[in-house]
Amino acid sequence: MNKIVASPEQAVADIPNGATVAIAGFGVAHRFATALICALRDQNTKELTLVCNSLGDAGATRGQILAENNQVKKLIAAFSVRPGTPTASEEQIAAGKMEVELVPQGILVERCRAGGAGIPAFYSPTGVDTDLATGREIREFDGKRHVLEYAIHVDYALLRGYRADRLGNVQFRGGSQNFNPSFAKAARIAIVEVDEIVEPGEIPPELIDLPGIFVSRVVKTTHVLDGKAWRRPARRPADQPRLYDGKPALTREGIARNAARLVKEGTYVNLGVGIPTMVSNYLEGRDVILHAENGVLGYGRMVSEEHEIDPDIYNAAGQFVALNRGASFFDSVASFEMARGGRIDTVILGAYEVDQQGSVANWSTADANPAGQRRQLEHGRRQARRHRRRDGPLVRQGRPDHRDGARGQQGPTEAAPQMHVSSDWQGVRELRRDRPGALALGQGPVRHRRGGARVHAQGSDRADRDGGRGRAERSHDGMMGRKTMRAVTFSRLGGPEVLEVSELPAPQPGPGEVRIRVKAATVNPTDISFRSGRQFSVAQLAEIGVRPPFIPGMELAGVVDAVGEGTSWRAGDRVMAIVNPRRPGGGAQAELVVVPTASVARVPEGASLETAATLPMNGLTVRLALDRLALKPGQTLGVTGAAGAVGGYAVELGVSEGLRVIAVARPQDEALVKRFGAKTFVPSGDAAMRTVYDAAPGGVDGLIDAAVLDAAVLPAIRDGGKLATVRGFAGPSERGITIEPVRVASYVHNHEALDRLGRLVAEGRLTLRVAETFPPERAAEAQRKMAAGGTRGRLVIVF
After folding, report:
1. What tens digit of pLDDT does each residue of 204-219 get?
2. Distance (Å, rounded) from C-alpha 33 to C-alpha 214?
3. Which DSSP state fits 610?
4. If we measure between CA atoms, which residue out of 621, 650, 624 comes closest to residue 638?
């Protein structure tokens, strides 16, 4: 028996349109089936139903890239979106293009386990009295109400293991079992991607975590990621308080320390995402065992030093942690058995809203509907406490969304803990020890019910993790009152280290202008040239009225939040725009950007703001290049760097105009380039131009040099043909070839061309690609990655 297949592409080749596919993985990126997911994207299978914990962030090589490629019809997940991280799936769900079924995380894995075990349905106390139970069968057992849950069966499961043999036996490493075993058992065909394939017997029987009887195919990964390189985005220091009405709130560090003091010796404790994860830093030497729902029992403090990190040992938030003696690993099914079975003594939650009766809700705002995973943890808890700060903020935007976190998670209403709140801002009183409960941590006050109504309160600073993002997205009117904005800036020329985030005066739109509340702005080579001074010195910039601090960035996407006279745009319109950063108002990498209406177009239907931001500059560059080449349908277009951002658009736009495209790229990018529609693929290398010349034959009629090879591409062009260059190369030429340097600045105000590009995206004829997203605080890292080259897709700054 041999279950090994040659490549990820072969492993997923038979997944048809309309299939149900489970994607395992939890937390850190390197333990997702990256190669299989990319292969599924590249073969463009449509109308998929995905089952997963979440799709991940924009650009992440998880299920989200399938959403970005418009391949997902329905999502069954514990999280549909995450606050502060807009995604293609969020946009599609909001537009009604993607159906979503939210399932508590533990119930999700239990439903899959049931499907694999031949159990058609079961009853669970989780979710009773929430919207998730609406219309569902409820039965009472031992005096408690339970909701009926049906088993989940899937067609395929994409799994990620450490190593496997040809019989399909799989070993996982550290805390990376998570959903893999239950998803494998629920699948008709389970495909596992591993670091290493070994001979039968090389994995000791006691180390086989998933027997081969549950696995159909084994493939070695082609996407090796450095787990240690992953770091959570930078955020406000834990010891720095936020100010509300001029008064300092508790710091995150202070809240975590207080919570740690309340934890009793000899207890099992689960730490929720957000502030609670910091509690592990203050329990060293204590007789306390920490539980993480991804499958770790007995972990310790968070670690960040290279020598301390094991990339497969992390908490439920994906933060690397140390292991204590006696620690153990298991899958998510076992993890939630511990929770629902009442084995966990204390659960510490980060909550958006709490009330006097102990009910918990997450927030539903204009830009996010996060789904929770904590119901099972709350249901099995034994003890409850809550923090309260006397003069904390009352947050009025949004509403409590009881579908995803909410009232009655602990079961019947009468079982809610009795809350005693101290008037002292650091005071905490224990609840009755015979009542189940949880400890909810936050920087706002606990609010009381009045007449059955809920008073909204901030229960966690998670909404503010991006350093002010929450305030910027509250409403259009809320932004109008702001006098400052954050922006990526530099005040002197130099390396990436000169970049910083600055607070600048908010710009105001004049006649014929709009102000855009930016969600996403790309990083591009022009930013590097601008910052390094390759094109202009500070004195030369001053001569054209551009003075420090300088703001980089040429393209963006966001929401119109203010308009000047003489424009048809309205506040709330979702738009993309191109801007020349060498202007007095600066570039695109700022929370608020004012641009002429001629530089603005509507975001393509079905596109997220992150992906839409990748279109204006490169799309218009290619549009200008094709206009200069002026080729007719049936003629031949050559494209170098065809897998890159400019090259990819060149292939797709050329195909859409009836040209025969010969594409040059690295051998490993052949499948990607052919997906763009290239009829002929030529591997890059010394013989590439000769191969292009022969494939035409006699040379291509026109060529777009996205790889910036300059004179080296001339041999591929026919006598009297044309060459479009993107970095200023103008010759010398040969054999009557016309060289057309392309400068996108000349199309900055071409609304019609940008609008046409958007329509091509909506029609599925142009592909938007995000490689990775960064907060503005990591702009220097993004520029370094851009300079290193080899990125497939765009690097995007997200505000």
Report:
1. 999 999 999 999 999 9
2. 17
3. H
4. 650
Where the chain has pLDDT below 70, the residues are 27-30, 59-60, 81-85, 225-236, 244, 351-482
Please, what is the Cα angle at 301 between 299 and 306, to 5 degrees? 105
Residue 689 has phi, psi (to 5 degrees) of -70, -35
| Chain centroid offset of residue 324 CA | 31
- In whole angstroms, give the CA distance from residue 253 to residue 271: 15
Q: What is the pLDDT of residue 715?
A: 96
pLDDT for the residue numbered 82:
64
Tokens of 336: 């939630």
Q: Cβ-count burial of 211 within 10 angstroms (0-12 exposed, 13-18 middle, 19+ buried)?
A: middle
Q: At what angle do helices 525-532 and 779-788 cross, to 10 degrees?
A: 110
111 in Cβ contact with 151 (< 8 Å): yes
Residue 41 to residue 48: CA distance in whole angstroms: 11
* Residue 681: strand pairing partners: 663
* Three state DSSP letters for 632-681: CCCCEEEEECCCCHHHHHHHHHHHHCCCEEEEEECHHHHHHHHHCCCCEE
Q: Nearest-CA neighbor of 192 among 158, 169, 225?
A: 158
How far from 184 is each of 45, 65, 79, 111, 211, CA to CA, in Å?
Answer: 21, 22, 20, 12, 10
- Would you please indicate which residues are annotated as catalytic (active-site) residues? 293
CA dihedral 470, 472, 477, 478 (to 10 degrees): 60
In the chain, the amino acid numbered 406 is: A
Give the separation between CA 221 and CA 472, rounded to whole angstroms: 41
Q: Beta partners for 82?
A: 85
Quickly count: other Cβ atoms within 10 Å of residue 166's Cβ: 15
Residues 616 and 639: their CA atoms lie apart, in Å, by 19
Amino acid at 546: V
Q: For the chain, how many residues are written?
A: 799
Among the residues of 78-232, which ranges form H helices? 88-94, 105-117, 180-186
Residue 211 has a pLDDT of 97
Q: What's 412-475 look like in SS3?
A: CHHHCCCCCCCCCCCCCCCCCCCCCCCEEECCCCCECCECCECCCCCCCCHHHCCCCHHHHCCC
Of the candidates 395, 10, 329, which has an alpha carbon nearest to the alpha carbon of residue 178? 329
Tokens 């511990």 correspond to what residue? Answer: 338
Task: Decide: residue 795, CB within 10 A, 0-12 exposed, 13-18 middle, 19+ buried.
Answer: buried
In angstroms, how far is CA 16 from the centroid of its own chain?
Answer: 26
- DSSP 3-state of 131: helix
Give the residue among 326, 325, 301 at the shortest CA–CA distance from 315.
Answer: 301
Helix and strand numbers (H, E) in the chain are 20, 37
Structure-token pair, residue 348: 């510490």
Please say whether the beta carbons of 407 and 119 come within 8 A. Answer: no
Cα–Cα distance between 407 and 218 in angstroms, integer? 44
> d(Cα 334, Cα 330) in Å, to the nearest integer?
6
Per-residue burial over 713-743, b if 16 or more Cβ lie within 10 Å, else e, is bbebbbeebbbbbbeebeeeeeeebebbebe
Longest dimension (CA), the chain: 90
